[in-house]
Amino acid sequence: MTKETFLWKEKISKLLISFSIPCVISFIVNALYNIVDQIFIGRGIWYLANGATNIVFPLTMICLWFWCLFWDWSASWLSLKLWEKRKDEAAKWVATGIFMSVITSLIFCWITLTFLPQLLNLFGCTDALREYATTYGWIIMLGIPFFMIWITLNSIIRADGNPKFAMLSMIIWAVINTLLDPLFIFVLDLGIAWAAYATIISQFITFSLNTWYITRLNSISLTRNIFTFDLHYIGKIAGLGVSSLINQISIVAVIAVSNNLLAKYWSLSKYWPDIPITVLGIVMKLAMILNSIILWISVWSQPIVGYNYWAKLYHRVRETLNLVLIVCSIVWITAFILFQTIPGLIIWIFGAWDALYIEFAILAFKIYLFFCFCYWIQIPAWIFFQSIWKSRISVLLSLSRQIIILIPAFFILWHIFGIMWILYAGAVADFVSVLLALGFLMKENKSLCKKHNKEEDIKEKSLKSTNISKELYEIVAERSLISN
Description:
Strand content: under 5%
Largest sheet: none
Shape: globular
Low-confidence stretches: 1-8, 479-484
Mean pLDDT: 77
Distance between the termini: 49 Å
Structural class: mainly alpha
Number of helices: 19
Radius of gyration: 26 Å
């Protein structure tokens, strides 16, 4: 069965599993390392150290901007050029992605190390968090080149036809980091600096492993002379990554705004700013892990939706969308139940230091994530519209929660109702964005139904026409035989 036949004949559930599972596992592992750090730092050092990791976190998210903008899409170009049987050009795309990852990572490393105090202030660092954030941030930024080059190579290895090796390298990274964290924090009592070193060591090992593989690619050969600065290739790679870049920017913008509001105005509350910054950072990271599951299930439904849409198999398009929504609803509704029923137990995993800390954590989970189950509609919706080339709707929906609704809601609710209402901004953004997504989906569903019915009418008329033609042919043939 060819790839094209596979996409329009194979059972939708089997297609979705085969496309999404490996990448979902890889992305979960990628997201989990931040949570692992939070757990060991929170339980082994102090909640202020945990808050410091939340201040540094946007810097690692900025690294992923560049990954989305350049390097993941160089892997997409590799797949395309291999399909076109143009191996030399495929090698050039890969070399451009690797070259840009090396150059950009070194520049970003220099910028962050030079201006680290200013960047920490930009992301809402308080005086109580500064020492921890500076120590942790300085070491993490030293390892940025290993991290950025490693994830670039990981995407290319996956596109080279070896997703198992790509997944294995991510698992090795997570396992090493998970083993070193408790060793350095609990056994050797080395503090937050060595929690950061644990991350760098695991990144370097995985970087070395992927570098070894990249010299033995199955599909192409990389030679020294193709690693050049070529604006033509760079521009095309960057053009494909813009939508993902916008999504990453919106996440960092939300973290920066919320941290600064918490740092500036929560000093007037009994919680002070450090508890809210720490707790809300944990809440957001947990939400991001669950979103990553939904995002990658949705992303890997794209080729199924796209191919069947252009093949005018609209019933399969609707079936794929419905299955994605069902799977995503199970993930987020389960999470919603846990967040509303056992928030105290969840925050205990990250360290429960005093009564105020636990009190605020329970409020954050119950209020900020009250409508979190809406994610099961919002994220698949904008990925779906991207799949059928309705980019304006896709961009609107992808920006709706973070940029269009959430950030204004922070300021509006705080000014009208007071500082505690910053927590309600998350629930408001979730509810409004899902209404917007639901409206577009219902309209598109009606359109798909009409198109499906129209195609069925055409097929039915064509079949009737064929049957009539056969009957006429048989009558003519019969009369011809009689006349003879």
